[in-house]
Amino acid sequence: MAATEVEITRDGLDRAEMNINMGPQHPATHGVFRMVLTLDGELVTDVEPHIGYLHRGSERLSEDENYQQIITLFDRLDYIANFNNEWVYVRAVEKIINAEVPERAEYLRVILSELNRIASHFLFYGTYGLDTGAMNPVMIGFRERERIQALFEAVSGARMMHNYFRIGGLKDDVPDGFVPATRVLLDQLKAGYDEAKNTLTESEVFIERTAGVGAISGEQALDFGVSGPVLRASGIDYDVRKNFPYSVYPELDFTVPVGKHGDCYDRYMVRMLEIEQSLSIIEQALDKLPEGPIQSRVPRIIRPEAGDVYVNGENPRGDLGVYIVSVGHHATPYRLKIRGPSFCNLMALATMMRGSYIADATVILGSLDIVLGEVDR
User: Fold this and answer.
1) How many CB atoms lie within 10 A of CB 7?
2) For 257-296, what is each residue's pLDDT tens digit?
3) What does the pLDDT average to over 91-116?
4) Most buried residue among 28, 37, 97, 341 by CB atoms closer than 10 A?
5) Do residues 45 and 64 both lie within one domain?
6) Do 111 and 104 contact (CB within 8 A), yes or no?
7) Which pLDDT score is estimated for 23?
């Protein structure tokens, strides 16, 4: 449905602005998301995002479940980064009850979460290829992601909604042969990454569609609360793993890729370079993986003292935070709030899109790599 307004300009020519809907049933919106685009011809003069079509009330539901049960709700927020979500939540509870985590569990958490980051970025690679009119990337991206999902299934018993991280450690130890199987997987992923890079990264058509499109400065990105690859593509060197180190990341050597132009191509390249860094992190963690327990002793029913805690971590989409309030000696949190990176990154969408062409609208939106389950939590 479209509404058209016509005004007469000084030179006597008609100038028409048209409002059109894109979504919520549209494959290029990457979920049930609607944009109302204001167009002057093919030029986007404004955009109004509409969210809430996938609302699930996760924060409110958490206030009626005990601390162990809430883990499953975090699996369903950003369903492309299940392990990363579970990790931030269990770290928050561990902090409020002062629980220790065995070293082996910490290294396994890093390995699984970095594999999840790679799987997420490969999915982005494939779908972003579709956004720009290329078919091959989605075949490559899903092939590499499937290899990772097969390993996840062997570890947790589930392809996605793992419910594997536990307050104080992990549900079970990894199966026999996990380390050699992961090393074989890393070799496959390196080969797949090289193929992906040769297919899309240096494509003249892809560069033409993305370079200089949807640019946003670092200062603007900070003003909007943007984080993750979108922020780093604008030249801001901020990664929770480096700026607020947690787990065993200080024991591992890796760099944080940073862009210069803040455009769609830089947002793509930052994620691709992060795959390289994650592969290196996993190799180092496998080399240092110690033997020992994977779960510390925690109460069967957790009832924290009164107080509040905020913990954040580096999700594939950015800075994911969890805020918990306890009134003391209750098995459920009094309040639980989530700082979602996809939701915050969407704040910059209108600024990125104004002045671009309608053909670039899906390219700009896709470069944010949003997951609506977390946006509409």
Assistant:
1) 8
2) 999 999 999 999 999 999 999 999 999 999 999 999 999 9
3) 96
4) 341
5) no
6) no
7) 78
d(CA 191, CA 169): 32
One domain for residues 80 and 200:
yes
Residue 31 shares a structural domain with residue 120: no
Give yes or no for residue 96 having a pLDDT over 50: yes
Across 354-369, b (16+ Cβ under 10 Å) vs e yields: eebeeebbbbbbbbbb
Q: Is the pLDDT of residue 4 over 80?
A: no
Full domain range(s) for residue 46: 2-50
Paired with 314 in beta bridges are: 319
Token pair in block for residue 183: 């090393």
Same domain, 291 and 312: yes
The domain that holds 185 is classified in CATH as 1.10.645.10
Percent of the chain with pLDDT strictly greater than 70 = 96
**361-368 vs 103-131: helix axis angle to the nearest 10?**
180
Distance from C-alpha of 197 to C-alpha of 188, rounded to nearest angstrom? 14
Same domain, 103 and 209: yes
- List pLDDT tens digits, range 212-250: 999 999 999 999 999 999 999 999 999 999 999 999 999
Q: What are phi and psi of 14, to 5 degrees?
A: -70, 135
First to last CA, the chain: 28
**Domain total in the chain:** 2
Q: Are residues 183 and 117 in the same domain?
A: yes
